[in-house]
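In this supplementary section we document a worked example of the pipeline. Step one takes a protein sequence of length 719 as its only input; no multiple sequence alignment statistics are reported here. Step two produces a three-dimensional model, which step three serialises into structure tokens for compact storage. The input and output of this example are shown verbatim.
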Amino acid sequence: MVYTKEVEIGGKKLTIETGKLAKQANGSVMVRYGDTMVLVAAVAASEPMQGVDFFPLSVEYREKAFAAGKIPGGFLKREGKPSDKEVLSSRLIDRPIRPLFPSEFKNETQVIAFVYSFDGENDADVLGAVGASAALAISDIPFLEPVGEVRVGRIDGKYIINPTFEELQKSDLELVVAGTTTSIMMVEGEATEVSENDILEALKFAHEEIKKIVNAINELAAECGKPKMVVAKEEFDANLVADVNALAYDKFKEIVSTVLSKEARAEKNKELTNEVCAALAEKYPEQEDVIKTLLHDMEKDLMRKRILEEGLRLDGRNTKQVRPISIETGLLPRTHGSALFTRGETQSLTTLTLGSKNDEQIIDGLQTEYKKRFLLHYNFPPFSVGETGRYSGTGRREVGHGNLAERSLKYIVPEESVFPYTIRINSDILESNGSSSMATVCAGCLALMDGGVPVKTHIAGIAMGLIKEDDKYAILTDILGNEDHLGDMDFKVAGSENGVTGIQMDIKIQGISFEIMENALAQAKEGRLHILGLMKTAIAESNAQVSQYAPSLISMKIRTDKIGAVIGPGGKVIQGIQKEFSVEIFIDDDGTVNIAAPSREAANNAKNYIKRLTAEPEIGEVYENCKVVKITDFGAFVEILPGTQGLLHVSQIDTKRINKVSDVLKEGELITVKLLKMENGKLSLSRKAVLEDEKNKSNSSEENVVEGIEFKTDFNTEA
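The serialised model returned by step three reads:
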């Protein structure tokens, strides 16, 4: 039997249907919004995975090219490895649902979303999240409560739910928000220096629509939902718990209360764990994993208790303090810009590379193909946390963190008309103990300024944490890795002095209140302003010049009807210009011409040539370095502009009478001429007029000099 629920979201109908497709999955739904449709299926293993201390959940989102009436590119002509867009969309689905499974549930679970129809207006990613929630809600997989997810934009001060791609171009913010009926579970987005209050209002606006989605899912589950699997609660031997506490509690309390480096703390924890396991090995054989779990929970409880009761953290800071920061710019001599940003034990070495239009990234997905001129890549090598590990392709975490940093910084990148370079930021995390993506934001801004990119303002980022027990909570500024791992929230906020440019929030509990979010945003602003002050001290404004090792780029504008003249038949003209001046030339449909060259001189020479090529002849204008193309009995044909010739009649060649043109001019010779008249497309030139003008100027200069005294002929008449 087919079950359907419909609800109006953002003025459009959202439909959730089940019972027709993928019926062997534990739960499956088709979600439709406009003509965009996403199938989501959820499956869980019947038995728990053994020997794991985490929930084995995987989420996959895939865009099918046929959904947009396209054939995939490449040799194979089929979908391959997931694109960055698919990875980021998978994360938007995964992050809000992950905290909503029972902690004891260890059955391998998979959620897969396929985009089957795409209308070019409505993005499918939020539909995938709605579908995942609905599929889990109607399945027998344990799931605490459904979530809804929407995108929020704002145009002219008016908030919009699920704006189209066209509307997003006009919007001053873009937020993806997920939540339950009572609280927010996830936030991800960017803005153009939007205030914290406006961000909060956008979240509240989104939540009203989210509640409607959740109610529809609950109604669907009530009609066709399966009974949930029974999950056995994890119970430990009371004697074992007591013995572990007796051996480790006081020692762990001392470790938690002592200020240690990340490495020293890890070593102390390891030593204590080994000591307890060895002491209890005989009495409790084959219980080492349980003992380690008890010790982990003990550390977590002690850390959280100390923060809530004493306001003190593992490194001795209070809840609002930012770790010590050091900044160095220009440390890599051959890169186009560089910055080393260190905050506590987190360190980003970030570089800037400037390129031409040829270096833009081509994005081909369900949308119409487009290009990106600002790229940010984030890398997290295993040595940054003192570990070995597989070092291969870019992982999901790296894609997600890089995307957040890129979105946080792209607002300050100048328009192409102002700064025509393709810009790539590369952040290598050399040390990590929390908030590496926000270190990337800070280092990225500094590298841009070091490289002479005329950015709009300084941007800094900071990560906020949360410790919450019942109604008591503490918000943590600039969280450590342990505070992220053992805490309840990771709330990243980037922006300038004037407002927010990037935001991401994930939680590990069943929702947080708007009160907590408001306080977290306010506290994040305090921390951000502190960091911005240090960044401004390090580099107050962008360097005046780009690196000597960066390519020289010049941008100019020509009339659109002159584009063909620059390109020439079969590209012959533009290829010739590129070869002659050793440059690269890129022409946009609006007549914008970008010239990339190894030197400023070469770029200017090419620019001047294109100016001449596209210029219109003007009567009375003097043209220099004009080539004599052809000699005739009655005169000479002279090229005054590329592709534009005029007749220099024999009577206009010289101030005196000449009998033979070839006595004065030679083919290939460069001369200066004046355009006298244009009739029916024919140009009449004069060299004689130029010679006479030069003679008159010379005579005038001599008349104004008497016995070595120069007479002033141009007087300032101002009082």
